What we know:
By secondary structure, the protein is an alpha+beta fold. It folds into five domains: about 5-100, DNA Primase, Chain A (Alpha-Beta Complex), CATH 3.90.580; about 110-245, DNA primase, catalytic core, N-terminal domain (DNA primase DNAg catalytic core, N-terminal domain), CATH 3.90.980; about 245-380, Dna Topoisomerase Vi A Subunit, Chain: A, domain 2; about 385-440, no CATH class; about 475-615, Orthogonal Bundle (DNAb Helicase, Chain A). Helix content is about 55%, strand content about 10%. It has 26 helices and 19 strands. The strands form five sheets. It has a six-stranded mixed sheet with strand order 14-16-15-17-18-19, sandwiched between helices. A five-stranded antiparallel sheet has the order 2-3-4-5-6. A four-stranded antiparallel sheet has the order 8-11-12-13, covered by helices on one side. Helix 12 crosses helix 13, helix 14 crosses helix 15 (about 360-365) and helix 20 (about 475-485) packs across helix 21 (about 490-495).
Amino acid sequence: xxxxxxxxxxxxxxxxxxxxxxxxxxxxxxxxxxxxxxxxxxxxxxxxxxxxxxxxxxxxxxxxxxxxxxxxxxxxxxxxxxxxxxxxxxxxxxxxxxxxxxxxxxxxxxxxxxxxxxxxxxxxxxxxxxxxxxxxxxxxxxxxxxxxxxxxxxxxxxxxxxxxxxxxxxxxxxxxxxxxxxxxxxxxxxxxxxxxxxxxxxxxxxxxxxxxxxxxxxxxxxxxxxxxxxxxxxxxxxxxxxxxxxxxxxxxxxxxxxxxxxxxxxxxxxxxxxxxxxxxxxxxxxxxxxxxxxxxxxxxxxxxxxxxxxxxxxxxxxxxxxxxxxxxxxxxxxxxxxxxxxxxxxxxxxxxxxxxxxxxxxxxxxxxxxxxxxxxxxxxxxxxxxxxxxxxxxxxxxxxxxxxxxxxxxxxxxxxxxxxxxxxxxxxxxxxxxxxxxxxxxxxxxxxxxxxxxxxxxxxxxxxxxxxxxxxxxxxxxxxxxxxxxxxxxxxxxxxxxxxxxxxxxxxxxxxxxxxxxxxxxxxxxxxxxxxxxxxxxxxxxxxxxxxxxxxxxxxxxxxxxxxxxxxxxxxxxxxxxxxxxxxxxxxxxxxxxxxxxxxxxxxxxxxxxxxxxxxxxxxx
Length: 621
């Protein structure tokens, strides 16, 4: 697969209607010429997320996120740039022109395509084995015992992985898939990574195979359910991490459920794949399952883009309680309200549906309790609350979870609720929460101090591949950026070389130079929006914020002249400070002292003249 031609990228960007695209994810309300909503990228109650249809940009004045339509889809759906362009091209019926990339790019893109093709083809093979092969008789019997029909198996492309590696080799040989691709895709694993010559073994053997899909519906991995408990202590085994799969960023069934989650304004999270798909097939479609009990920050961030409410529907045992607590810890960090549905002892969603019907599960979900009520009930059942030490243990656990709540009114309400349940004063729990927060701050301060003392330490480094380092701007440079982006006359005057030396070395100077040499016309937003997609996230955020603030002055050219004059004065002042410092601290020869003194006098005269001109010049207030 080649690189997408620049002309096609620009065609896609030009075709995007940002209001249509954003409102496809959540509703927008008109506010003058712009549209507003609560930001999907951080928690807020008052809308600070603005969409400007004229310029084709969005910006959040709360968290600083901003960009064009392509950038929004990339951020909202966690998609790479190329995948976003392809998605939007399909939406607008644009045929993309492909160009040859570098050998490395071609190799990486080709590898990704082959991995996706491998997973698509082997998922189809697994599925056909389940439906027709005598090898899968045990798998079919197991699914039947769990109430899964052949229709459900077809709907979810459930398959069967045989236990003889020879079947895989025959299939791969017919399909021309080499062993190294099967290993990279996690279908086979090396017996000895240090000695590949020892050959490979199966990742999945005699298991029911559930395809794991990305948001587009492409198969990217598998989760295999063991058929004989004695074969493995782990019921489910997932594909290892590959170039197309990371289990910490994926929910099983999310490609099918995300629309229902958005519509219902809440997500239901269960533990197992069968629980998830049986509930979905029974009509509870806003349900998903993580791949294992681990719940990650990436999971929480993914959900936050679609909802601010989650119902946890885990098994009613100690493992289920611990899993719920871990999920709450991550979800609460993203400002997501968490409730927990209590299932009868020994039941999971699948068994409850089969035993009592889907309405029984619906009632349990509707009666789901606030997480803190759930925590109190669970701990009260296992601890002796008349014992001071055990009571304090539970209070500390509550305080630790209460401290995770970011919204003060929500925290206050939870404090009062917990105090009422435990028949104690709210201040007692509040003090413990404050003590926990103080301990957290102390730890954070210690990390910050270590980072300050050792800037090269790993904790001070940005994420690899990150391009979001903040751009520090001098106030006058910020004004010039805004004028250059919004006023044609100011842009022309600055680009013609108003006095480039005036802002050399000033915060944001390189950024301003980039704008003044860019192929944009402030009078034509159609030229600005595509160019924004070439910037780093930090640069794009700055410019969209300035664009959404509008033009700062009716007489932009005069404002630009004043800003440049101010920068020239500041530049001369820096030169004066430099020479004065050299005269104070250095030990130059007499000739150097004379030369520096003359230069200093000249600079001071220049400084006074520039200040006088600035005071006398007309200014637009």
